[in-house]
Amino acid sequence: MTDQNNNQLPPDTMPQLRVMPMPSDANVHGDVFGGWIMAQVDIAGSLPATRRANGRVATIAVNSFLFKQPVFVGDLLSFYAEIVKVGNTSITVNVEVYAERNRLQTEVVKVTEATLTYVATDAQRKPRQLPPLAS
Ligand SMILES: CC(C)(COP(=O)(O)OP(=O)(O)OC[C@H]1O[C@@H](n2cnc3c(N)ncnc32)[C@H](O)[C@@H]1OP(=O)(O)O)[C@@H](O)C(=O)NCCC(=O)NCCS
Collapsing DSSP states into helix, strand and coil, what is residue 28? Predict the structure, then answer.
């Protein structure tokens, strides 16, 4: 994914999630509550992790989280997630969030970047060895 903020969504890649925050997702100042954004990031990151684990995963760590720009009610948010590290049982995912503001004028702003680690778990919620990559 790109570090640039060139008023465009990242090319050649599909977001895991697209969602628009509503007034009920706002904080007391009227901007979108960071905890709501964190929840969406966790969901977006879990999608490639679940596919790689071929089963359930649990979030073990939020390694980093940067709220670089505010998010406003009515922004159209796109969540891009990419696996950056795979261990024995763990999968680390980078998530970038872009907001399309004033959508008729195509203003795109990278608002958030985070790295999270998920652990593949079994039916007893214990860590599970990751399966080999499908060929
Ligand atoms: C996820 C869980 C099953 C893992 O069990 P555990 O006994 O703590 O796991 P381990 O210590 O064996 O570590 C498992 C993997 O996580 C990694 N890990 C552990 N602590 C970590 C940390 N702080 N940051 C990143 N990775 C970490 C380990 O390196 C290991 O990876 P590897 O197997 O690829 O080498 C357990 O911690 C748990 O149930 N946590 C709660 C999960 C949850 O409820 N999440 C939602 C909360 S909102």
Answer: coil
